[in-house]
Amino acid sequence: MALPLIDGGSRKKRDQMLAVDLGNRTTKAVHIQRRGNKFTLSRYAILDAPIFDRVLSAEMLAEHLKAVSHALDSKTRLVALTLNVNEVIVRHVDMPRMPVEDMRLILKHNSRNYLQQELSNYIFDCHFLPPGPGQSDGDKTGAAQKQKVLVAGAKQQIVDEFSVGAKNAGLVADHIVPGIIGPVNAFEMAMPDVFTNDVVALVDIGFKSTSICILQHGEMILSRVVTYGGDRLTHAISEAMGISYAEAEGIKVGMASEVQSALESVLTPLGRELRASIDFFEHQQDRPVAQVYVAGGSARSEFIVQTLAAELMVECKTWNPASFLQIELPPQQAAEIEQVAPQLAVAIGTAISAL
């Protein structure tokens, strides 16, 4: 699943891709190569974002992408970029059966009818969803056939600035996709049996926000973003221990017992918000969520994951989005990949969608 707001359009399969997850606090990037039906991770990078309180301008993005490309020592000019949750909408919509290009045009000129809000100067893409249980592909709704569609949309200006920024960095923006899709694509590759056969939730803890995607037998049925992220966790540690934000960030993963109560004050409301999404899904679909898989930098903390499990009343575990990749990293990165992998879920999934 790609939902590219920009797609390079080449019918020829790419043999390598640089994917950049432009986070609010840190940028995560990977260089992945395709060799037959195998994928190889040849380099990754985690860099401080230039700013984290507004959208990057094309000029700032160009300079940042130059630094990313240099850190990856990448020879390819093709790059897949992610839009964060504040820059893109992702919705489930019922639409008449028609080609994707026609859907994109209808949404562009009539977004209020399908998305319940006026989204002028937006660009859209659509992904067809299969019929639900008990429905056939040929079911009729009224006079016209309808089908479930996953829709992504972003402001044309942002997409254009990303394209210009990449071009000014000497790169080609081959794909621009919603970041929320990345973990889903990576999970399909890393845990194919669970992806295909189970009902699970993917939780990605970002800097400012946390996303939850609920998958049912290989399809994303529900997605939601809540405004609780790693930033609040770090602030809670900083205040509880009377230390700087930077010091608190450094000890967040290896938590001391004295800061756990402060973290619980943030994790409890986050858990309740995520549980509300699970309850909504289970009520609508009449199926329980079997497990929750957690990614993001904060997922490296066993305490954070287990506290969320207690709030959600569902088993939670971290997962390795790089587990399906052949590893050909420099020695130091190879030694660290298992630890940092939860942070790379969006970037890895974005690269796979573009290859």
In short:
With 355 residues, this protein is an alpha/beta fold. It contains 12 helices and 15 strands. The strands form 3 sheets. A 7-stranded mixed β-sheet has the order 1-9-5-2-3-4-15, sandwiched between helices. Strands 12-11-10-13-14 form a 5-stranded mixed β-sheet.
What does this structure look like?
The chain is an alpha/beta fold. The protein folds into 2 domains: 1-191 and 320-355, Nucleotidyltransferase, domain 5 (2-Layer Sandwich); 192-318, Nucleotidyltransferase, domain 5. The chain contains 12 helices and 15 strands. The strands form 3 sheets. The protein has a 7-stranded mixed sheet with strand order 1-9-5-2-3-4-15, with helices on both faces. Strands 12-11-10-13-14 form a 5-stranded mixed sheet. It has a 3-stranded antiparallel sheet with strand order 6-8-7. Helix 10 links the parallel strand 13 (291-295) and strand 14. Helix 1 crosses helix 4 (156-168), helix 7 packs across helix 8 (245-251) and helix 7 packs antiparallel against helix 9 (260-285). The protein is globular, with a radius of gyration of 20 Å. The N and C termini lie close together (11 Å). Mean pLDDT is 89; it is low at 138-143.
